[in-house]
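Quick one: co-fold with glutamine.
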Amino acid sequence: MSARYIFITGGVVSSLGKGLASAALGALLQARGYKVRLRKLDPYLNVDPGTMSPYQHGECYVTDDGAETDLDLGHYERFTGVPARQSDNVTTGRIYSDVIAKERRGDYLGGTVQVIPHVTDAIRDFVVSDITDEDFVLCEIGGTVGDIEGLPFLEAIRQLGNELGRERACYIHCTLLPYIGAAGELKTKPTQHSVKELLSVGIQPDILLCRAERDIPQGEKRKIALFCNVRESRVISALDVDTIYAVPLTYHREGLDVEVLSYFNMMKEGQEEEIDLSRWSDITRTVRAPEGEVTIAVVGKYTVLLDAYKSLAEALVHGGIANNVRVKLNWVESEIFETDDPVPYLENVHGILVPGGFGERGSEGKIQACRFARERNIPYFGICFGMQMAVIEAARHLAGIEDASSTEFGPAKNAVVGLLTEWKKGNRVETRGENDDKGGTMRLGAYPCILEPGSKTQEIYGERQIYERHRHRYEVNVGYREKLEAVGLKFTGMSPDGILPEIVEREDHAWFIGVQFHPELKSKPFEPHPLFAGFIEAAVKTSRLV
Ligand code: GLN
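Sure, here it is.
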């Protein structure tokens, strides 16, 4: 194993876009022909982000192998196309629970179990685990340098760097250069302090990636280089951009890939420009100058924190790319429809999407949104919770089951959506009970689904069997299939054993599809997900009608 490790830390403030920076660097190294893997170490105490509210942590990104992970893994996968795995994200919570479980088993043979070396060893083992022939492993450390909880991670990567040697380890530090209007200057002092903080734990950064609102004058770069003990050419400016897909292009222009490779002695003279980034420039061109625009209303619950719908928002952009249009998103808080008329919010949109969600609050409003879309023939896309709400809507308003509901909201006589207590995972049967732990116990990850020949969904996918990622605890009750199909809501995708409804659609409608899985997780800018491409195509048609 001779992978090279690039450790990415952040300083000064959080939300610097370290995740995107890592993803963009991954994409650049890939464009130079290297095999990359991206990982994230998160210093919080939750075992994974699965139990956290989206308000706390944004979206929970689910991998094929069923891990609930940090949303940065979504950026990594979208930018590099490398499917993220369980082994690409770890938290302090998971590290500690493993260490403590080992201690209880007696694996430490009477030793005193300590942060150094036992916790740091567990972190190091994780960082180098499950790597085969990758050329580069990019490992991002969550949080900001100086946080107490991040210390064991910094210590672990310091030790690793020491062991691997400089030829196999590189430290990139992302910082911010705030612009002070009154002085008319970008300030370098916070960066200097942040690097000092990093030095105090024994890490000398090799490359600085400096976020700034405007161009960083060469003089300032020189100053940073001098004070932070970094070569001037390795002080890279990372300016704000209008689309995230321009990030690889701007980083290349600033020399990031060249500096990383020259750090590792992998850059031959004259090869600096031998990189094909045309697919990135093509995509930014489409995003910047599309031929038209459609408006989609996303009716959800976490609309004040858009990170909660990161992959969804990106997948809609991808749907726009596939149709050469800009997708304008109107985020609508669903609770509004419980008191207000939906007409002013929804009558002028070209598509309505109800995304994944949890809990009763806002659910009646989502049901209203489904009804509006169905009755007005506006393209409707229901994802996970959004499919469940569409089913309840049809049951109540078309099939005459007035008390149709989901047991997620409490006991229900007509539970058209109910708790999943048993399902097949490959050859195994998974079982769950009402009082089981909440963490990591949903139906998670990729499962196969068989599509109904001749259905709209089957036509969109062009395949009979698909694999999509799931994250749910409740499921549409197949016992209501006949009643719902009789009123036009067809079950066109089922689990291979025919028990779990995975897709519903209406034939008598412009575009009305609900899916139990999360297609947004697999959409990529260069490979827009067919359902998102199809949904936006239908929205474009609707926009021509109004
Ligand atoms: N709350 C629903 C369930 O657990 C939907 C989940 C989701 O939308 N991801 O089944």
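If it helps, The chain has a mean pLDDT of 94.
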